[in-house]
Each structure stands twice: as structure tokens, then as C-alpha cells.
Write a structure and sequence with these properties.
Layout (H helix, E strand, L loop, with lengths): L4 H14 L3 H15 L2 H8 L6 E7 L6 E6 L4 E2 L10 E7 L2 E8 L11 E9 L4 E4 L4 E6 L4 E6 L9 E3 L6 E3 L7
Antiparallel strand pairs: 1-2, 2-9, 3-8, 4-7, 4-9, 5-6, 5-8, 10-11
Helix pairs in contact: 1-2
Length: 180
Amino acid sequence: MAYDLQQFIVECKSILRADSGPGGREAVRAKLEQLLKEPDFVERYCADDAPIGVHVLFEDPELGFQILAHVYAKARVSPPHDHGASWAIYGQAARYTDVTEWERVDRDGDPKHGQLVAKSTYRLMPGHAAIYQDGMIHSIDYPDLARFVRVTGTNLDKISRRSFNLESGEVTQMQPVTAS
């Protein structure tokens, strides 16, 4: 029997009710990898002919977590950013995403300026997922037709998040990107 989105949702709810911390998130990450290995799921939500954009596949009214499909036509390199007080799990469905994790090294905590250094860089390939805990700064770089599924602890459009300019050091608040 194939693993599908509904089974994933049921398991996410159960996991996060029991442990909403790092251990539960790791279990959700593993389940997302299982889901991304299902050709029917990938074909339905992340195929080359899927509608372009960010699509909410599920939002839990009790626990607040979201499952989103990110379907892009064009390549993009994001600036370093965080997800504020939320965690996120990125799971690659098609093509790849290069990820850089950053560490903030300025010690004064200036909310408008910050200095970052790259901590690690890796490539997410189809079927692989990675966790970004609350406040973790990262950037992503993906090619044309990349597709990934993101599970977040909450609707990111409703919380404060930051973006970092590597050249100027400027820190800005990210604007919401409403998912359809």
C-alpha cells in the first residue's frame, strides 16, 4: 500500500501532539522523506506540469503546522533568512536545492545589522529532507523546475522573520508570501 498525504497528515498530528520539540520534528522529517519517495504523491503535487506557486496542502487548525508544495518554474537564490519563532522542514521532490546554513557572528545583537559566516553547505536531492529549527538562518539556491515540500510549525506569513544582506549587513523584516 502506498504512503499518501492523508497518512502523512495523520502521522504528523500524532507525532507533534506527543513531542512538538526537536525529537518530534525529526520524526516528521523522516516521514516527509518517506512521502517524497512515493511517485503518486510527487506526480500529483510536484510534477513538471503542476501549477506554479506555493500551495497549502494542509494547515492543522489545532497544532498550527502547515504542509506546502513549492513549485517553481525559474531558478532562484534566496538571501539568508530565518523562519522566526517557527521551525521548517524542507523536503526535495524534484531537481535539487543547495542549502547554506549561516551563523550570526556579530555579538551586539543589533536588529538592523548583522554579520554572518557560512556554517555548512549541502545539496538536498529528491527524497531527502532537512530541518531548520526556530531562528536558524539559511539560504537556498535551486534551478528551474525545482519542487519541494515544506512543513512549518506555523503559518510563516503570520510571524516576524528576518532576511540578511550579505554585502551590507542589513537585516530586514521579510514580507509575507501568501500561499494559494
